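TL;DR need structure tokens for one chain.
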Amino acid sequence: MRFLTILLVLLTTSTAAQKVYIIDSLSLKPVQGASLTTKNPDFGSASDMSGEVRLDIFNLKDSIYVKHVSYKTKKILKHDIKDGDLLLSLKTHALYDIKITEPKEINFKNPLTSIKITSAQITDNQKTQTSELLGDLMGVAVQNSQNGGGSPNLRGMEANRLLIIVDGISLNNTISRSGRLQSTAAINPAFIENTEVLFGSSSVAYGNSAMGGAILFNTIKPKKGNKVRFVQQYETSSSANFSSIISNYKLKSSINVSGFAIKSYNNLKMGKNRFHGFESW
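>> reply
TL;DR here they are.
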């Protein structure tokens, strides 16, 4: 009787765990293509679509390696495998920091197709109009038919053929019957931190709106501390007054910048002495 009992136990042990299912430990879904091998890589089996794999080919004392490209390798003895599921854990990959840079910032700018005006240059020029500030740049012409106005011209193109951007927002400078809807004359030079003019191939990155080029304006940025700046200019040629006040102040955890400007222009007068060669004019 004792012999029969021992024989039944041995038969049960040898026939146990002949089939298991390879399962994802997180999703609890079957893992297809998991390979089960011993130290001999030429000998083993693989799980099917349902994650099922047979263990008949392995001996009871074999060390089985469960491998998959997306999961951690697991080593287990055959006699330790119970009927049911065998869980695998996904591999974790450390991702390095990735810096994404706009192509127009690195691939389209070079000294021949980009001109930049710094805040120091803007302060030194003492211009009352942004259009006058642009007129001093190489390759930029400004059509100024009246005081307080001015339209930049790049490569023979102006108005809606030029893209004007203020702090990343484009202005609608489309031509209408009464003139342009928005132009550089609406931008106060005292509020500008820096200006950049792109023409030629540099403006390609901005699309078909920048057919002639692109003019980028960046306004002054908030700075720590409280500061008030007052600018006032007077032009005798047109009796023009230009006053601007800019305040930088801190309010609790926020820093704010605000500004106010007044412009007043009279008729532009020609000087008394003009030697043009036409006495009857």
